[in-house]
Amino acid sequence: MNGSGNGNGKENGYGKRVKVESEVARKKIKTEGEKKRRVKREQKEEEEAEEYEWWRDQNGDKDDTIRWTQLEHQGVLFPPEYVPHGVPILYDGEKVYLEPEIEELVGFFAALLETEHGANPTFQRNFFNELKLLMSKSKRKYPIKEFSRCDFRPMYEYFQKQKEEKKQMSKEEKAALLEERKMIEEKYGYCILDGRREKVGNFRIEPPGLFRGRGAHPKTGCYKRRVRAEQITINIGKDAKIPEPPKGSKWGNVIHDQTVTWLAMWKENVNDNTKYVFLAAGSSLKGQSDLKKYEKARELKKHIVRIRKDYMAALTSSDGKTRQRATALYLIDRFALRAGNEKGDDQADTVGCCSLRYEHVTFEDGKVVFDFLGKDSIRYYNKVEVHPAVYRNLVSFQRAAKTPGNLLFSLINTVELNKHLSSLMPGLSAKVFRTYNASHTFQQELEKQDVTPASSIHELTLAYNRANRQVAVLCNHQRAVAKNFSGQLSKIADRLMGLRYECRRHIDLLKPNLTDLSLADRAKYDLAPFEQACRDDPDRPITTEWLYSYFADLLTKDIERLEKKKASDATQSNLDSIEEKLASLSSELSTLNSKKEALSSSKSSKPYIPEMYRLTFNSIDKSFSTIQRLYTRIVATKTALVDKDENKTTALGTSKINYIDPRITVSWCKKFDIPVEKFFPKTLREKFKWAMHADKNFKF
DNA sequence: GCTTCCGACTCAGAAATATAATA
DNA sequence: TTATTATATTTCTGAGTCGGAAG
């Protein structure tokens, strides 16, 4: 590996920035240390792998239709054959035992019983049709007629139990399993490409199951059948040894096509789509096209002003087709919309720019509202201001479309659009705008961030992620809300409430003591911003009931702490005082509980505060600094809350992996003296090997 | 020429797994 | 400490783009 690239991590390791501040941090140091060792080990592995630095001898005008000259590989790995378990399902409450083939299919459904797929009517219907088909072909007679009379629970429970058992496996068993996995990866996971050992991506043949289409896919739940060797085409070098198919079978076809990069291919039965086995993302072949993609996007930089001028002028063209094309381009460029190819009826109804329909735009307060399902049925909702000409055009396109269901851009399509684009710049197509705008936005946002090389790792990470998030929002990259998200949020909100309450009572304590001060002195202790910060959240007011739970919580935690202390390092001398404290804590806890009980019946106005948590005034300065400290924590907790909430549905990964030129990250890391490992985990460093030596002055 | 089809590739979020944080 | 839970990373496979061949 080249020195300038990888040496970076060593010179600027974590150690320099980790501040040893307290004993509490000691534990951190240990884990930091372990982390450091792990990172070092990874780096070593990266260095050890003998490296072909393909990016060093790129010559642009090589014949790029031939993708390889030598290709050797081990073929594909098939999933294990089905092993029947004999667990029945219930029909009208009666046990029904199934023959293996049918049991397997039913098992696919039973496993998904508690998921959204299992509850999806289309999924259920498609699955059940497949089941009826299999039963009708069987010699056996099954009583099963209606889905609603089936009970898949027993099988579901059985699978759950199995999962549980797997979790309970001993260390040795787990290690053995891992070992086997490694062996398999060693065999199938690599190929020889032009004399070099390169990683293969998905060498595992997809196991049978129920097709899990996204969104409202009409075929979701259909039986995705087991793939056999006879369906598979192997692509391999002429001189290479052809991999052995499973016993008793043979490959469907073996070809030696040097113009493509796949190693194996088959047709999947549900949608008749082709599935490929490709090299891994870190391979030279993938890396080369990745680099090419970003270079093309950078090429667009040189033309973007002209292209924008071009389509802005065309917005008011007298030719309808030209106006539509210009408007579509405006949307693709400004809002990073996808091109939007036509789709069939046997697919989910999703759209991109060119396939937008009447119902996907509305006009509100002089703005345009886009609301449609995009790729993967992810909702795109955006209320935006647009250029007046674009507004006028959209209104008129919609009027021309007349009714829902009709195309907004009725006169153009993606093929034409891309043809036009490639006439403006060789190789330009709609998707290049997404790459260009994503990378460009990222670089700009990064520059906007208020950080210096002296900033802490934490601040730098935050800055990076903020820029990253801007791009994710631009590209509408979303993710499902985490399972217990609201629980996690309310936990933080609860913590915030506690801080607010504490801040409030410290202010109340201090305030009366300020009245005697001179006006000038009083100005030194301005409480206004703090009072503002600890004002109640109207959605979560501090009630007496909450207060009692708050103190009960504090008591419980203090009791636990003391119990621990008692158990671990109590000497005879302090044992008594511990016992004493424990007793008073417990008594306060029971007092509190009874007060809480009484709360529902009587409405006493003054909340009871356990003795040990009552505040006593000490000095103005002490009190004031406590308030300041609490204030800082309130602000930090608030931002954490906002941060978490904003990140709730935003997926940062997709843009990092596919849209942001990695050289921007690398150069920024060099400039700000922070290891790239902070932002690129192992596989990404592998994927972006070609970008690791980017200069610190690199500009996208 | 045109439209339609389809092959080959990139990009997408969910699910599985590994790791770190916390009780 | 160990067990549990949260978070980060990797794997999986479905869903797009786009260009060129076929009809």
Automatic annotation (TrEMBL):
<dbReference type="GO" id="GO:0006265">
    <property type="term" value="P:DNA topological change"/>
</dbReference>
<keyword id="KW-0539">Nucleus</keyword>
<dbReference type="InterPro" id="IPR018521">
    <property type="entry name" value="TopoIB_AS"/>
</dbReference>
<dbReference type="Pfam" id="PF01028">
    <property type="entry name" value="Topoisom_I"/>
</dbReference>
<dbReference type="InterPro" id="IPR013499">
    <property type="entry name" value="TopoI_euk"/>
</dbReference>
<feature type="active site" description="O-(3'-phospho-DNA)-tyrosine intermediate">
    <location>
        <position position="659"/>
    </location>
</feature>
<dbReference type="InterPro" id="IPR036202">
    <property type="entry name" value="TopoI_DNA-bd_euk_N_sf"/>
</dbReference>
<keyword id="KW-0413">Isomerase</keyword>
<dbReference type="GO" id="GO:0005730">
    <property type="term" value="C:nucleolus"/>
</dbReference>
<dbReference type="InterPro" id="IPR011010">
    <property type="entry name" value="DNA_brk_join_enz"/>
</dbReference>
<comment type="function">
    <text>Releases the supercoiling and torsional tension of DNA introduced during the DNA replication and transcription by transiently cleaving and rejoining one strand of the DNA duplex. Introduces a single-strand break via transesterification at the specific target site 5'-[CT]CCTTp site in duplex DNA. The scissile phosphodiester is attacked by the catalytic tyrosine of the enzyme, resulting in the formation of a DNA-(3'-phosphotyrosyl)-enzyme intermediate and the expulsion of a 5'-OH DNA strand. The free DNA strand then undergoes passage around the unbroken strand thus removing DNA supercoils.</text>
</comment>
<keyword id="KW-0799">Topoisomerase</keyword>
<keyword id="KW-0175">Coiled coil</keyword>
<feature type="coiled-coil region">
    <location>
        <begin position="568"/>
        <end position="595"/>
    </location>
</feature>
<dbReference type="InterPro" id="IPR051062">
    <property type="entry name" value="Topoisomerase_IB"/>
</dbReference>
<dbReference type="InterPro" id="IPR001631">
    <property type="entry name" value="TopoI"/>
</dbReference>
<dbReference type="Pfam" id="PF14370">
    <property type="entry name" value="Topo_C_assoc"/>
</dbReference>
<dbReference type="Pfam" id="PF02919">
    <property type="entry name" value="Topoisom_I_N"/>
</dbReference>
<comment type="similarity">
    <text>Belongs to the type IB topoisomerase family.</text>
</comment>
<feature type="coiled-coil region">
    <location>
        <begin position="160"/>
        <end position="187"/>
    </location>
</feature>
<feature type="domain" description="DNA topoisomerase I eukaryotic-type">
    <location>
        <begin position="210"/>
        <end position="673"/>
    </location>
</feature>
<dbReference type="GO" id="GO:0003677">
    <property type="term" value="F:DNA binding"/>
</dbReference>
<dbReference type="InterPro" id="IPR025834">
    <property type="entry name" value="TopoI_C_dom"/>
</dbReference>
<dbReference type="InterPro" id="IPR013030">
    <property type="entry name" value="DNA_topo_DNA_db_N_dom2"/>
</dbReference>
<feature type="region of interest" description="Disordered">
    <location>
        <begin position="30"/>
        <end position="52"/>
    </location>
</feature>
<dbReference type="InterPro" id="IPR014711">
    <property type="entry name" value="TopoI_cat_a-hlx-sub_euk"/>
</dbReference>
<dbReference type="GO" id="GO:0006260">
    <property type="term" value="P:DNA replication"/>
</dbReference>
<dbReference type="InterPro" id="IPR008336">
    <property type="entry name" value="TopoI_DNA-bd_euk"/>
</dbReference>
<dbReference type="GO" id="GO:0003917">
    <property type="term" value="F:DNA topoisomerase type I (single strand cut, ATP-independent) activity"/>
</dbReference>
<dbReference type="InterPro" id="IPR014727">
    <property type="entry name" value="TopoI_cat_a/b-sub_euk"/>
</dbReference>
<dbReference type="GO" id="GO:0007059">
    <property type="term" value="P:chromosome segregation"/>
</dbReference>
<dbReference type="InterPro" id="IPR013500">
    <property type="entry name" value="TopoI_cat_euk"/>
</dbReference>
<dbReference type="InterPro" id="IPR013034">
    <property type="entry name" value="DNA_topo_DNA_db_N_dom1"/>
</dbReference>
<protein>
    <recommendedName>
        <fullName>DNA topoisomerase I</fullName>
        <ecNumber>5.6.2.1</ecNumber>
    </recommendedName>
</protein>
<dbReference type="GO" id="GO:0005694">
    <property type="term" value="C:chromosome"/>
</dbReference>
<keyword id="KW-0238">DNA-binding</keyword>
